[in-house]
Amino acid sequence: MNRPSIVVFAYSEPGYTCLKALIEAKANILAVYTHQDDPDEEIWFHSVYDLAKANNIPVFRPKKIDEEATNYILNLNPDIIFSFYFRRLIPNEIILKPRLGAYNLHGALLPKYRGQTCINWAVVNGETHTGATLHLMTEKADEGDIVDQRGFDIAFTDTSLDVFIKVSKIASEIIKDCLPKIEAGTITLTPQDDTQATKFGRRRPKDGLLDFSKDAISLYNLIRGVTHPFPGAFTYVNNKKLFIWWAKPIEGTGNIGEIVSTNPLCIGTGKGLLQLEKLQFENEAELDAKAFTDLLPIGTKFELE
Fold this sequence. Notes:
By secondary structure, the protein is an alpha/beta fold. Helix content is 25%, strand content 25%. The strands form two sheets. It has a seven-stranded mixed sheet with strand order 3-2-1-4-5-6-7. Strands 8, 9, 10, 11, 12 and 13 form a six-stranded antiparallel sheet that branches. α5 (118-124) runs antiparallel to α7. The N and C termini lie far apart (60 Å).
């Protein structure tokens, strides 16, 4: 095959859709690197590993890109490297190797939302617009020149999963359209404006703690930003951890962090009320709010710990 050779690092749904776009374009893929699924993580996305296997592409799942993996990749001498939601650091000697460049797909409109878990952060922060960016990989993550980026709206009812699926779709379109120019070495790069950059770090399960002194819309954004398949937003009631998987902000007033009605089940916040709809005590079944009428009577106080 005379087309430029490619090594792909990919995981999650954007990784799957972008690899699928390369396969459908009959790209010359030498190898795919992905991850073992985490048994503690809810796996909602298609398998990059299975997709590569089904298309007879050599695929590897090392715990890290160590010296052995690095030497193997360097010996392949790829012309292009792509990283699509790969979760581990790719050594500089690898990303500097390909003559036609190394490119990363980021789930935001760079330079905004550099860093990890950018999709969840965008929803938690109540953003109404985001997108995907294909950019040149450099030593500093998410700071390379932009190849292409495309945006879309985030609906007020979108969860992070909804946005992940939108990112995955638009990312595959970017790869499909940009691949010929990357292979031909004719891409036009646009430097990022660092003065407009924002950066957010990882989100951990503990970051889902609800502070009811905040306004109802901010609390709602946190809930939809970390609801299934992510770890979830939570509070405490009588020293028991209570997950709130879905709720909606409504008008009204009430004592902060206190149940003010049971039909519907509502709690007071710093501004407005939060109507609770899907709840779950830790290690118990997830249920509709109606099942909690007797468990959370009026006056019940939610705690920070």
